[in-house]
Protein 1
Amino acid sequence: MTLIIGVLEQGLIYGILALGSYITYKILDFPDLTVDGSFPLGAAVTAAIVTKGGNPYAAFLISALAGAAAGACTGLIHVKCKVRDLLAGIIVMTGLYTVNYRIAGMANVPLFGSETAFDNEWINQIPQGLASYKTLMVIAVVAVMVKVLLDLYLKTKSGMLLRATGDNERLVTTLAKDSGTMKIIGLAISNGLVALGGSVMCQQQRFFELGMGTGTVVICLASVIIGTSVFKNARWMKATTAVVIGSVFYRACVALAMNLGLETTDMKLIMAVLFLIILIVTADRKKKVRNHA
Amino acid sequence: MKKNMIAILMAAAVLMTGCASSGSGAGEDTSAQSEASSAEETSAEAADGASYTIGISQFAIHGSLDNCREGFLQGLAEEGIVEGENLTVDYKNAESSTEYANQIASDLVSGSPDMICAIATPSAQSCYNAAMNTDIPVIYTAITDPVAAQLANEDGSSVGNITGTSDKLPVEKQLEMIRELLPEAETIGIIYTTSEANSESAIAEYEAAVEKYGFTLETVGISTISEVSLAADTLLAKVDCLNNLTDNTVVQALPTILDKANAQGIPVFGSEIEQVRKGCLAAEGLDYVALGVTTGKMAAQILKGEAEASQLPYESIADSGLYLNTAVAENLGITIPESAQERAIETFAEISAE
């Protein structure tokens, strides 16, 4: 049971990140590597706020804003300085390493002595029987809120333009809108969500570690691809829901692999193969080939 | 769509079971043994009838940390808790990833072992966090500063159901030894990884202590292993000797550093036995196996119910030992004083590549 709760907790946290990556990877078609930096950025900001006795829920919000600023930087570098998408992400990700270190002040900041969103007077009032679920409940509330807000945003005029930017930039231009601005907005929202995920993760694991961002982009993309591929034909399901489920599914695979006594060294290859299988099995081959020709 | 799902799940299952069996077949005795002994847990009971399960979460694959783990099991064995007899060990390695460290922690806790042993700081923090709402005690080792990691209070007492051992470096003794071996040296260089909390606190200690021994300190911080080479070039141009910490990343790149330093005839000092074996001139350092043994004995006390983890203050090894490598000294043309040679608890006459 603890294992299932653990999988859901971790899966939903990475689900928040995956929602962010969904915007860049699926909607904007922008391979964004900023996430490796904005994920620990959210955690660093949170560590700085929470250790000073700041409100842990406010830390969620401030982290998201910091992440949005990082995303906007990537966008500005790409759009205004005309740097290629991958490189723009790499530049910001690299710079964020220093920024994160400066914000946190140390390479490893423990939060065992501080109030977090999962452990404070207010949340500890819940009945004893539910105590082991309280972390999961808070995470679920945040994840669902993010998903619903994102769904609502995508229905607004700005959201429609964002989707159009990814599908057909010219259409956006003919509507007398600037597709560059839309890209910057998309990247800001995306990295805001990733940093929010970092904030939740930092408070859940109760420490900030400078190296915690390594490989985030892979986890995010895996979740997005698993989610959107597996539920591709489920028209009734929103893509955002599919992405969150994809993240939980990915986490479940990792947990299962560990439980079977697999070496962590073997894990990456297994994930890569699993990844490939999912892509092959779910691919609508005729269409794919034409798309990629 | 349903068919696809089933196909994916089946493929995943086949893949994982396939790899699982090959993994244990590859001679990784801990996993093989734990599988075997969990299958016949009831038969694996010692004379006093008690049998235990311990989950071990190790943060990285690393000589010193491996030694810690071995020592830990040795320490337990000395107290009559022997792996494969009355002890089942579930060992997991996080491959230097906090993501895996978290996953491993919740995985271990879900198995409700009698104790979790966490090796290195991030693993200890995630295990303590995961086990916080359970009654599973956590014992840690190889943490330089348990107070800074918030796993112990200022006075050394425990913050919760957790205790362990610290691998705090004997900084002053190391400096004294360097002075003894290199009476002329003025500048010591240290390469460290900015993301490693252990190294940060060690650097602070060195900074505070170098002056007393007439040295100045030059440090270069790196963020990934790929920067080690450049950092070594930078430092070697301005120092009389290099000094290594127990920094995981730098230790992994030790061959690069030794290669560059040897080319310029600059001695490199280590911080523990493994580094001296591999070609550092000398180290006034810890024996991680001994540290593990101490940890194992503490663990045995807790398992047998003689003590509570929350009541035991963390321990560090008081005595350091001098390790020398005479082959390195010969290559560098350095004569090691007799007093040091006599004092050394282990002297290597050759450089081992392993």
Note: The first helix of chain A runs from residue 2 to 27.
Protein 2
Amino acid sequence: MKTDPKGVLTGEHYLDGDHACAEGALAAGCRFFAGYPITPSTEVAERFCSRIPLVGGIFIQMEDELGSMAAVVGASWSGKKSMTVTSGPGFSLMMENIGLAAMMETPCVVVNVQRGGPSTGLPTMVGQADMMQARWGSHGDYEIIALSPASPQESFDYTIFAFNFAEKYRVPVMVMMDECVGHMTEKVVIPPAGKIDVAYRTMTTLSPDKYLPYVPEKNLVPDMMPVGEGYNIHSTGLTHDERGYPVMSPDAQDKIVNRLVDKINKNADDIIMIEEEDTEDADIIVMAYGITSRVTMPAIFEARKKGLKVGFIKLITVWPFPEKRIKQLAKTAKAFVMPEINLGQVVLELERIVAGKTKVYHVPHAGGWVHDPADIYKAIEEAANGNKK
Amino acid sequence: MQFWRKPLDADKIKVPHGEIHIVRDRCKGCGFCVEYCPKDVLVLSEEFNTKGYHPPEAVKADDCVHCQLCEMLCPEFAIFVTLKDEESVEA
Amino acid sequence: MATKNNNVPEHPMERLLRMDRIPHIWCPTCGIGTAVSCFISAIDKFKHPHEKIAVVSGIGCTGRVAGYIKLDSFHTTHGRAIPFATGLKLANPDLKVVVFSGDGDLISIGGNHFIHAARRNTDITVVCVNNFIYAMTGGQCAPTTPLTANSSTTPYGNHERPFNLPLLASSCGAVYVARWTSLHIRRLTNSMHEALNKPGFSFVEVVAPCSTLYARRNRLGTGLDLLKFYHDSSEICHGADPTELDIAFQDKIKVGKFIDRERPTFIDAWNDNMKKKFGDKFDPYGEKKAKKAA
């Protein structure tokens, strides 16, 4: 499906990651934004609210992030592509209704421009420590999709991907940006509207008397019908059956929770996007995402200059994690090196998957600034020498 | 106990009659309908329904004036009144 | 549910109830069912296509209302019915969105959303069933529990001053504010109907009995005894000063329609403002569809 050209600002622009994200949302067809100001994400809301009146949509600055996320879920049920944007402290507040979105299977996009934490932490400085929270921050078992851009251009592109995944899988999708990308200004090329592919939720073709809102299709995702069409939809955050009615039983729980998880995991091949470079014959594979994937490059160049066979994987999709591909590479690579701006989050998943078959070297950073490439280089060197830290 | 006078046109006014329908098994025996029926048409029956409550029964069904107070007050959607057509006989 | 006697016609409420979910979960003599009956009667009178009405509830006993009403309906998270409804309404302005929830849900955990929705004049109708207590969780003190009343978290009597809900709503900018008890069925139905017809943030408080927890803990008898108490103690004071509508324990309950005024709704204000700024370049939000429909 091609996008509505009204929101597409075709051309070459000089934008920061936050502004590019707002343009990505408009290009993807997002016409509802509810948010609450928080550094370093506010520019996304500012851009969106200045652009939306003439694009044809609506913006509301809510009283807090709890309300923002609830409004986004509501708006999505009215049939509009909806989003909100925040940073760590607001992300924590949004967890409640991210869980509701997961349970009600509501397409929506949540952008987190990550800063240092915990709590108020470092409002104006970079972090990547919300990655586990993005995955499982709300209570209960569920799976979401998380993407991580490393440049303003990717911020634009991945925001569109995020909407497409949200619509296709009826799931909240997190765009896990970081302060560096959000505030970094670079060239962003916005293609013509005819070149932007967008997805929209599959609408049921059944009549109101035949339609049940939670009967999954082959891909495990149920067809949707927004309110206002005479379908008398009911949806609840309680464990529910195919009618959407609450059912308090272990059987109903088993059925719904497994499907919420399976609809992401069993479609992982469609969702996972990674960039690989020289991984096939690499001895050492460096894995990174977001801004860290760029900081890593000088270290990799340096190591290659020294004659080391270093491959590189950049995660575009962080969740679900590229389990299958890592298992293959774990057979040939001698070690993985993973820098991230936290004390060890996504690396835990990497360690779980390689399961001791090969060594994993984590390069932690508590946040506030990006890694010194020299630290990453040191880890590559250690990995090459086979020293476990 | 009546404090008001009899309206002068009382003879001309046709008092409607209602037919009371009780969904016995939906009743939880709160007694709202019995208490507030202005014509004292209802009492709680001696019998139990399937849930173990005493549903109301219309002991003075002919006195019902179709005010629908019972229908609106009932928290269980268990009692309602239809307007009785005086002219025709219901099947 | 089929009735035993095949000659019995359908209960008039059944058209707007999800009958596959009836009987409901509410206790005997609970007032929520009555409030639902009044609401359904108001919807019947309300000239708005039923497919364009949505009901949103939060969590709690009254939070279950959305699950029983056969319209598009949502049972959301605790306290978030109003922001969820805000999203529904703003994303599809053709809808009439009703929030039907309890005092704890709307005024305690959802209090911030309540005051801001009233301030913005978001075009939604809020029905708040006030039973003075957290009933679903077992009778804890609520922000509406009268002073000295007993609850499971105020076993020695409530020492916190409760909210006066009509005052809260009106001071934040609500355009329609009324309070009735669940005994005032006709007036409550009329108020709900007026509230539905009122563009902007309309608020109807329904004082309703909770026999299992509030009445039992305070030795007030059954829900029926509470209805008798409402009968004897309510005073109709249309247009009363909202500052004088506090409810003291087992004291007079002032009911009536207190506020009915005009203010531009959120979407009206958005459109007016953008029209001024952008002139003909701006397509008023939500108006195109209305034209098509007309």
Note: The domain at 12-263 of chain C is CATH 3.40.50.970 (Rossmann fold).
